[in-house]
Design goal:
By secondary structure, the chain is α/β, with parallel strands linked by helices. The protein is built from 12 helices and 12 strands.
Length: about 325
């Protein structure tokens, strides 16, 4: 019997082609759907392929009695109600490796832009000014970079930082210290990272233990003049506390690609604040990454629906015992 794969978001055509070519699958790819349209179309779906622009709530899953699997073209699955999916026996999978390089490169680009005031210098020159004194920056060489989270992306950032002759501290309770040591990084606890880092880059998942981890208390432990980069999840930072730390001079600047609410509200305390660089969640937005994660997500669905093979499952409790 034919099974239906609904793609309620915009994904690369190569992913659609993979699913269409698989015998036994019918593909419905209308592009990005509104919440109402998703509810209307999801009842016939056996599987979903999504990106970050669509939220799969318990209500959506309740409307899809035949839904077996959801594949996220990307790493984060915070747009899927995992508890509800697990209770309903729906397998949720992601593609954690597909956008690693794109995200690491964007992170490093933000760090360079922060160190050298590149966006501000560009805006100043385009405004007809020739202001060199205001935008004196710092070198990365010889500076200490603290990485909060040392998974695939954190390790890719570390590799690039070491090539820039930075000293790299790495914190991740789930990654053995030997992984950092073999790369030339130094395993460290959070207090050490806060105390010694000139730059801090966040690469942690957003869970209860990490929400607002960069708060007033953490900022107080940091070096004066520290610079922060966040291309992971917006909820990791207490925005008000960071804004105050920047205004006081405690933090020299921040570069942000993610926000707790996206798009951020007009009164967001960090948007437009001098010393802050903002990009609209672009870390994984390269042609290369979008193709890779979409193709990987499509293959996950083919394997799950047609071959009973399950890879990159994030709610493993739903897997058959065998």
């Amino acid at each position: 019997m034919t099974q239906t794969v609904l793609i309620p978001d915009n994904v690369d055509q190569k992913a659609i082609d993979i699913l269409t070519a698989a015998e036994g699958l019918t593909v419905v790819a209308p592009g990005k759907l509104s919440a109402a349209d998703l509810l209307a179309q999801v009842p016939q779906a056996n599987a979903l392929v999504i990106r970050s622009g669509v939220t799969i709530t318990d209500e959506v899953m309740a409307a899809a009695p035949q839904l077996k699997a959801i594949a996220r073209a990307g790493v984060g699955v915070d747009n899927v109600d995992l508890d509800a999916a697990t209770q309903r026996g729906i397998i949720v999978m992601n593609t954690p490796g597909g956008n690693t390089i794109s995200t690491a490169e964007h992170t490093f680009g933000l760090m360079l832009a922060l160190a050298r005031h590149i966006p501000q210098g560009d805006a100043s020159l385009k405004a007809g000014k020739w202001d060199r004194k205001t935008f004196v920056g710092v070198e990365l060489r010889g500076k200490t970079l603290g990485l909060v989270g040392f998974g695939r992306i954190g390790q890719a950032v570390a590799k690039r930082a070491l090539a820039f002759e930075m000293r790299v501290l790495a914190y991740d309770p789930l990654v053995p210290a030997i992984v950092a040591q073999q790369m030339g990084a130094i395993p460290a606890d959070l207090d050490t990272i806060y105390a010694e880092s000139d730059f801090i880059s966040l690469h942690a998942p957003l869970i209860d233990d990490t929400r607002s981890m960069i708060n007033q208390e953490a900022l107080a432990k940091m070096k004066d003049g520290v610079r922060l980069v966040n291309a992971a999840r917006g909820g990791l930072i207490d925005d008000v506390a960071l804004a105050e730390a920047i205004k006081s001079g405690k933090v020299a600047g921040a570069a942000l690609d993610v926000y707790e609410t996206e798009p951020p509200p007009a009164d967001h305390p960090l948007i437009g604040l001098p010393g802050v660089i903002d990009t609209p969640h672009l870390a994984a937005s390269t042609v290369d990454a979008q193709i890779t994660v979409a193709v990987e997500a499509a293959q996950l669905i083919v394997d799950a629906l047609l071959n009973n093979v399950y890879n990159n499952v994030v709610n493993t409790a739903v897997l058959p015992a065998e």
